[in-house]
Amino acid sequence: MAGQFQAPKGVPDYFPPRSNSFLAVQNAIGHAATLAGYGYVELPVFEDVNLFVRGIGESTDVVSKEMYVFEDRGGRTLALRPEGTAGVARLVIEHGLDKGQLPVKLWYQGPFFRAERPQQGRYRQLQQVGIEAIGAPDPALDVEVISVADDAFRSLGLRNFNLMLTSLGCANCRPEYKEKLIAYLEKLDLDGETKTRAKLNPLRVLDDKRPEVQKLLDKAPLMINELCDACANYHREVEDLLEVTDVKFTPAPKLVRGLDYYTRTTFEFDHPGLGAQSGIGGGGRYDGLMSSLGGNDLSGIGFGIGTDRTLMACEAENLIVGEKSLIDVFIVPIGDRAHQLAVSLLQQIRAANLRADMAYGDRGLKGAMKAADKSGAQLAVVIGDEEVSNSRVQIKNLGDSSQVQVALGDMVAHLIQVIRQTEQS
Ligand code: HAM
From CA 101, how far away is CA 105, in angstroms rounded? Predict the structure, then answer.
């Protein structure tokens, strides 16, 4: 019978066994960040709405259409965080982290909220793992950020993803380019809605997926060809360093991001196995963000990887990510005395760092053995009255059904030996 309540529209639940894989994806990305020296930050899930309006840009869809905005009991207007970069910049400024060693390198993970139209891979509560490196305008740092994402995907076994890369210029060259693009777009025969978009956010038009629009954009001026010398040199260095580190990329001169803070290096990772929502991660430089939020005029670069979509990408490539089973050892106690003993044995086994569970409730031998099989455990510890009396237990290998009897005092050592042996084989 279906219950009375369902999760809100567009909000995925994760539960075992898939939640194991979800955690493994999250951990793999966090691990890649840790290997590169990024420190963990726990960000607020809601912030002053103006942080996002100022940081991300008023005309973006994320801010103008997709934010969950609410008033708290003290009359403050807050928003559920739609992304993490603005929050990290706020945290760095508020706590003066930018006054220490630069770059400040931080990573974060958790849910973000966007009131988008839900569909496969597009959620209203989406999960990201992100990194931000603030305070060093160095192409090597751009390459580090991109490599951390690439390493994270590869460590999960992913192979079929593409990195799309471009430069969005800077405060010197972009305004001039924008004028050029607007002039070009004004001459085109575009529908009303697209015309409005061309005025509000002309770069977004380049991203239009309709083939008839793309045809019209054939000769549109591209930012990558209009970069100032400083931006062009910077981009060349990024590309050269990527070649050195053997991170493959595709130049994507029409790449447009949904957030306004980007400057210079901008990138997206795509996975062809995901259908329409193919972006598994994206990021770039944001050299004006810190100062626009009242901080020092420091550059920054980072990425946000979509945990939900990266998991889907692993599934599309048939990768087994994370532990298949939750349990190593399952105790099957038969009778009251065995039940009591099982409770203390569980503690001993877990103290030895093995994952252990037992048959709870009064199930009888058959039911309890069935539970042991279902648990996915490799070993079952079977205890009856007789075993309790002579301080012995039966250890059954649930894979090949072989069984040995061991003294209670040797049980933990035996379990460890068998499990470690299988792990190594
Ligand atoms: P973003 O491209 O908006 O960038 O999001 C990053 C990733 O989050 C996307 O590539 C996608 O995998 C995932 N994502 C976004 N929206 C959804 C959704 N509705 N459902 C499922 N997954 C989604 C940012 O958020 C920037 N803060 C990244 C960044 C960090 N740039 C610089 N530093």
Answer: 10
Dist. CA 222–CA 261, nearest whole Å: 18
Tell which atom from ligand 1 comes closest to the C-alpha of 281.
Answer: 10
Q: Is 309's C-beta closer than 6 angstroms to any atom of ligand 1?
A: yes
- Upstream peptide bond of 17 is cis (omega within 30 degrees of 0): yes
State pLDDT tens for residues 34-58. Answer: 999 999 999 999 999 999 999 999 9
380 neighbors 330 (Cβ within 8 angstroms): yes
Ligand 1 centroid to Cα of residue 302, in Å, is: 11
Question: Helices 174-186 and 192-200 sit at what angle, rounded to 10 degrees?
Answer: 160
pLDDT of res. 150: 98
Rounded (5°) CA angle 167-254-250:
70
Q: What is the pLDDT of residues 151-179, one digit of tens each?
A: 999 999 999 999 999 999 999 999 999 99
Strand partners, 404: 395
Which of 253, 103, 265, 258 is CA-nearest to residue 170?
A: 265
204-209 own/partner pairs: CB under 8 Å, 24+ apart? 204/256, 206/181, 206/254, 206/256, 207/254, 207/255, 207/256
φ/ψ of residue 333, rounded to 5: -95, 130
Going by their DSSP bridges, the two strands 162-167 and 69-71 should be labelled as: unpaired
Q: pLDDT tens for residues 303-324?
A: 999 999 999 999 999 999 998 8
82 lines ligand 1 (CB under 6 A): no
pLDDT band at 126; cut points 50, 70, 90: very high
Distance 304 CA to ligand 1 centre (A): 5
